[in-house]
Amino acid sequence: MRVIWTDSVTGCNGYLVVHSLVSGLATGGTRMRAGCTLSEVEALARGMARKTAVFDLPVGGAKGGIDCDPKDPAARGVLSRFLQAMRPWVDAHWVTAEDLGVPQHLIDEVFAELGLHQSYHAAIRRAPDAERTLRRVRAGLNAPVPGGLLLGDVVGGYGVAQSCLGVVHARGWAQAATTVAVQGVGTMGGGAAYYLHEAGLKVVALADAAGTLWHPDGLDVPALLETRDRFGEIDRAQVPPDVEQLPREAVLSAEVDVLIPAAVSFTIKAPQVPEVNAKIIIEAANTPVTEDAEEMLATRGIPVIPDFVANAGAVAWAWWLLLGRVDADPVLSFQVLREEMLAKIPPLLAAWETEGLTPRAAALRLAELRSEQNRAAEASGQGLLSIP
After folding, report:
1. pLDDT-derived band of residue 381, with 50, 70 and 90 as boundaries?
2. What is the C-alpha radius of gyration for the chain, rounded to an integer number of angstroms?
């Protein structure tokens, strides 16, 4: 299902795509960026359906997108009017959350103004005690973690970091000798870089909209992230003098073990493939590698861990929180997410090495199997969703 909406005030377009419903629900964030298109939102909704299937979540996939610059002073009003227009869906069927250009606190503020309390409203309202479930969700999202951040802000990046560590363990690499380049320092990229640095890997390249920072011995990631402004850019006045400042695109050609594109979609296209010098790519952004580029990378022996596995930690954790598998204890959340990610990556690399399947093809095989099981369960009248 596709909805195209035009804001009567600014003329900005917004899109809602519901790829599939499971138990009458679909989940997927709401993004805002200048140039956002319906086809982009369609692809993201399809990716969300794959994420929920791979992680065996009892919900389908959807996505919202708004063609507006989040830095525009009118952006908040556009978001509010978009969600008001989508109210029948956010009230009963669409569980949304933060995404590119829309932080969780902002979308929750808009939901509260609409009288819906929180962006997970469509699922929370199904709980026998909705207020108790709402308290659990809010406590989990706002639980403090080391580094001065909140659990809900870092869990997606933590999941990407665990995907990377799954690769490191499967390949038998020494963590202290593994080099990483991260494109993007927002929720996903910044979180992944932070937790990989904490795990002892060398994050040698870190890129934001202003350029790439490089140090062959590894960057002081926590210190750099501390200088980010509200738009996620590192203050260059506080960058140490021994850190080399390179063009933004330099992160893609860094000679590293792991490249993590965590910025915008379609970053690595066919023309960029010859420049890639990483041994493996982990997709932290949604669809950062185009289909033809991934095929070319495969011929060069460079596998790509697909986004619907690598960056699915945020949506999986949100649903574990809704379903009561985790709570406001960050230790428990990190433990569950670490175990899930470390279990999912090795089979994808094994399929690459023994069957000649790309990690994407192997993950799609798993997603389709889970989707078939969900369809069969619903057809038989079995309830898939139970929110405590």
Report:
1. low
2. 20
